[in-house]
Amino acid sequence: MQSLNRFHSLSPASPYFRWLASHGSAKKLFVGGVSVDHCLAIKLGTAASIYTANNILSEYAKCEQIRIAHKMFDEMSQRDAVSWNTMIAGFVNIGNFETALEFLKSMKRYGFSVDGYSFGSILKGVACVGYVEVGQQLHSIIVKMGYVRNVFASSALLDMYAKCERVEDAFEVFNSLRIRNSVTWNALISGYAQVGDLGTSFWLFNCKALEGVKIDDGTFVPLLTLLDDPDLYKLTKQVHGKIMKHGFASDTTVCNAIITSYSECGSIEDAERVFKAAAETRDLVTWNSMLAAYLVNHEEEGAFELFLEMQVLGFELDIYTYTSIISAAFEGAHQGQGKSLHGLVIKRGLEFFVPIANSLIAMYLKSHSKSMDEPLNIFESMENKDHVSWNSILTGFSQRGLGEDALKFFENMRSQHVVIDHYAFSAVLRSCSDLATLQLGQQVHVLVLKLGFEPNEFVASSLIFLYSKCGVIEDARKSFEATPKDSSIMWNSLIFGYAQHGQGKIALDLFFLMRDRRVKLDHITFVAVLTACSHIGLVEEGRSFLKSMESDYGIPPRMEHYACMIDLLGRAARLDEAKALIEAMPFEPDAMVWKTLLGACRTCGDIKLASQVASHLLELEPEDHCTYVLLSSIYGHLGRWNEKASIKRLMKERGVKKVPGWSWIEVKNEVHGFNAEDRSHPNCEEIYQRLGDLMEEIGRLDEYANSEVLLHDFL
Q1: Residues 6+ away with beta carbon under 8 Å from 211
Q2: Among the listed ranges 39-53, 320-334, 548-562, which one has the minimum average pLDDT value?
Q3: How far apart are CA 703 and CA 659, in angstroms?
Q4: Who has greater pLDDT, 8 or 698?
Q5: 147, 169, 149: which is closest to 159 by C-alpha?
Q6: pLDDT per position as a tens digit, 21-40
Q7: pTM surpassing 0.85?
Q8: How far apart are CA 545 and CA 414, in angstroms?
Q9: How far is it, in rounded angstroms, from Cα 177 to Cα 207?
Q10: CA angle at residue 166 from 165 to 171, to 5 degrees?
């Protein structure tokens, strides 16, 4: 019996079990202990006892050995409600809700009474899978059988509605409870927190305190998830004070949530203070929370230092740790860390984990390299791919301007029966826009309608962009009208569309309508508005928008806003004002700003200012061909051939080549691309023959027009 007693002491609640769990051996040893108990019960003849059998059955279910538990259940000569409830709970705990539901139905068929424990377990399963319709049916049965006041059934019912985001139903169940304990209060608070209802969540928190119900860690954690904005920083401090007052500052779960709240409120200093104060109670989640805090606040240096410290301290890093730190690579000064992290992942044999592989793909796509080789190599090496893997590659092709590859990849996704979501549609529609393939874009639009994605803001924005780019602004407006119009994304896209079509007045009218409807404006909105002003020459209005951005709307002007204003001044031939604006900028102008001014110099023929601007650009981007081409064009326009020739020599010396422009045409759903003197097309001989015929016809028409002029002068 010593063996039996020894393994009975190895319960999940025992300190020894917790120590084993931290070393990854608990489950194996605990299963071994249950097996020994089972063997001894058979040997001693006590296995036939329903009490003993149920205990062993429960232990198998707790350590997720549900297959063994199922076999034992089938072999039991006697069963009671406890046996059935144990199996239902076991299947729910491993996420097999369908089998748990079948057991509940079988339990009733075999004449056993379903009780509060049965309902509690099955409703927990409903909450996990989100089958709210099944939950409502179970609610009806609970009422019919008189279990509505059973503490287990009613608490589980409340929790189910809350987790399925049916907070009104959860509140009704809560009001019907005779006894409201801390668990039921927490479930309701958590439900309202899950749907983002900050006001009701904190009202319930105050009500709970007023009723004298004990405040615990489960009360604070859901409230902290709502505190995710700089405007809520003061409230976060107040909640932190209450946490300290109630003695939960050292609770690991609460501590992790506080770190996350402070970081999302923009206070990395407070997050660091909480992290350092928890030195004795930190777990891996605490370290991961601090790592995420650094990344949310763009403190990549702090993130990498923390990651190295975790390794030095011997932490067994998890998938979340790796995906977080990989996301920081190729950002700013850490562009060289990406390859090292990739090597570390391979060394530890983690490259085949889908989330890590996805993060590596995203990392290479964020790099300055235009190549798709590395992301594609990772993608093709993945045995299992999810929709994130497919969408990442598709978006990579689209963002790198590889529209044809994106369209082929999208076709491959469909042939492989990959679930197409709004991210995929957004990416492929952008590629259709880049290629100006209207017919193909319309076909994708049909698929969007068929699958019900047209109201999605990202898809709608891409449709607006497609039709605007292809010159069909009326269809862009139709796509806009088909959306809920509660997000700035669609408004910005349509304002841009009208601005690019030279319909600046309509674009500005849309901006004022957007403001009147209290749609949240962002920095992109003002880029669109300033673009509209630029296209119709509204200099003073544009200047007014730029000045009012921060004072009236709380949006500090960025580099792109100054570039738009410089373009506006350049189009109005006010180069001195454009130059003065650059000198007055609160930060150093980047290449985009200087290129905008250089383009204005070309339009106005100001060679002196153009030379000064070009010198800045050649220092910033000596390998970019645009500056050389623009400056050469200005010299050519003014007939300064020697200077033009010197620019060409400089390009040759530095190995800078002009990137040729492309033209394309869509014929029968196939895109044909051409650049200057291109002979790669299979029908190039016929094309050049036809071009020759057209040039001859143009020549004859020109001669005829000239003869008409001479005859008119003679007469």
Answers
A1: 180
A2: 39-53
A3: 35
A4: 698
A5: 169
A6: 443 444 444 455 666 666 77
A7: no
A8: 45
A9: 15
A10: 120
